[in-house]
Amino acid sequence: MADQTQHHHLFGHHNEEERKHHKHLEELDELGAAAAGAYALHEKHKAKKDLQNAHRHKLEEEIGAAAAVGAGGLAFHEHHEKYNAKKEEEKAEGKHHHLF
Q1: Cβ atoms 68, 37 nearer than 8 A
Q2: DSSP string, 1-49
Q3: Which of 39, 49, 81, 100 is at a distance of 20 to 30 A from 15, taking alpha carbons?
Q4: 3-state class (DSSP) for residue 1
Q5: Handedness of CA 26, 29, 77, 17 (dihedral sign)
């Protein structure tokens, strides 16, 4: 098993798989951020319409907004992990980007 892992690493397959994995997680986190944001807007609308339970809807709106921010942060993190995996893959393949 260790030989397979080392073999994949030598040819950059591991980093390519890692990059695809981070891309997938980034997309899921973006979807989660959009869903949580939509939920927050829905609760904001309900707070205006349902005055008896407005306080509860405002709390749920804040929870949805916090979840959207958290998911957005996770998407940002995964984006950078994907970028780092790509750079490692390029480095393993001998592609270097020099500024000078």
Answers
A1: yes
A2: -HHHHHHHHHTTHHHHHHHHHHHHHHHHHHHHHHHHHHHHHHHHHHHHH
A3: 100
A4: coil
A5: negative
State the residue for tokens 């807007």.
41
Q: What is the length of the chain?
A: 100
pLDDT score of 6:
45
Residue written as tokens 């950078």? 80
Torsion of CA 36, 41, 42, 46, to 10 degrees: 140
Q: What per-residue confidence (pLDDT) applies to 96?
A: 63
Token pair for residue 75?
């998407």
> Domain-by-domain residue ranges, the chain?
21-93
- Average pLDDT across each block of 10 residues of the chain; the chain has 100 residues. List them in order: 45 77 96 98 97 97 98 96 89 70
Query: Tokens 């098993």 label which residue?
Result: 1
d(CA 23, CA 1): 26
